[in-house]
Design goal:
It comes from Periconia macrospinosa. The protein is an alpha/beta fold. The chain contains 17 helices and 12 strands. It folds into 2 domains: 278 residues, Rossmann fold, CATH 3.40.50; 136 residues, no CATH class. Helix 7 links the parallel strand 2 and strand 3.
Amino acid sequence: MPSWISRATANHNAQLVTTAVVSGVVVGSVILGLQKAKRMYRVADLKASIPELDEDHHATRLTQFGAASDAFPISKEDEKSMALAARARKGDYDDDLILEQLARNRVFLTDDGLAKLRDAFVIVVGCGGVGSHATAALARSGVSKLRLIDFDQVTLSSLNRHAVATLADVGTPKVHCIRRRLEQITPWTHFECRNELFGEASAPTQLAPMNGQAPTFVIDAIDNIDSKVALLYYCSKNNIPVISSMGAGCKSDPTRIFVGDISTSTDDPLSKSTRRRLRALGVKDGIPVIFSTERPGPGKAQLLPLAEEEFTKGDVGELGVLPDFRVRILPVLGTMPAIFGLAVANHVILEITGYPHDYLPSKARDKMYDGILGALQGAEERLARSMGFESQGLKIPLTQDDVGYLVEEVYHGRSIISGLSTRLVLSRWNKPGEDFIDKRTPGQKNSLLQMKDLVLMTKEEATKHEKEILKGDKRPEDLYDQKVLELVRKKMDEEEKFERFR
């Protein structure tokens, strides 16, 4: 290399070329340096032009949780807690200290049970009054992996029932509020916060494994019927253990709260709608729920109606934050969501650890449904013969589950005529037309019977109804009073609306 340089510089032309190259490099470096310096000066000038946020300035900083820092500043304790939690999740926390904190649970559940709990991955969907208390109880009891899903923020009205929210949390996502507060209690817990609305389309992602671990349990603390049904249906079909909290609104009697199968839940509008929608989807039992059997009465709280002036403004649906979410105020006694949430967490803890427990048995009425289905088959064959059709091989398009749905969810196990609950059968209400049998498939005869055509009666009532209306010349208006006719019409209209969920 030195010999090449000496030869190049010995030639006059080469010297000129080398000088030009070196000069170009130097000039280019100087230009780039000046440009960089100018950019640095401009940035410095821009930063200097931004005024400091003092008491006289109208602007304000936002914390990482979206709250105004001058109104709700992050305290030194919060900062220390966050730093400790970050280290604890990486393993920088003495396991003996954790076991000491969980000592009472440890002696109750045994070492094996506590180990299962500490290894569990639980998803909580809905982080309001019920969900926050359930989450707090699970974290305090040792569950170390929690995924929180909720689209909403903490409001002032949340503070009467939320487990951990304070004034400093108003305006922040509920999932982050819970994480921030519980990190001060169980810093080793891994929280995964999803500030999202749960829905049918997003269920596979939102209920997906965490670091390869499938959910040990899912908690449904949602108060929107569509999201609730979507969650429970997905868990049921994918064999994910789940427990659902039904309505705590307008309830006040803690002695009426039960843990039972969804098929046994009563006296709760949210439970009724959820159960009926799930049964229409083919899920009739197998989901534990928390529900209250307390009934409304004189002087008790009720769902508050919208003010009359709101209806005059136009579509009341526009008042909701999201489509299908209620816009009326639901009265809630602050203690009741807490009891529901703790009952949910208690059940989850017992299930995960294998601690002995029982809940109300489901309604085992399959034999009764089979009997009603057989009686309906016989009634359709008799009706076909009376109208001049060959009844042998006639098929009806209903199943045992369809019968159970009509008996339990539509007619609540009682005759539409007398209200009796024994010796029940399903019967057509109106006499069908001549085309009530489908013969389009060679060698096959199908009844065109639909669920909305049927009502529940006692056997004696059905015999009279068949003789005088289905085979005779009378109409229902000739046989029953206006009260029964109106009740049947209401039930049939109701079932037609629910048909779209099938």
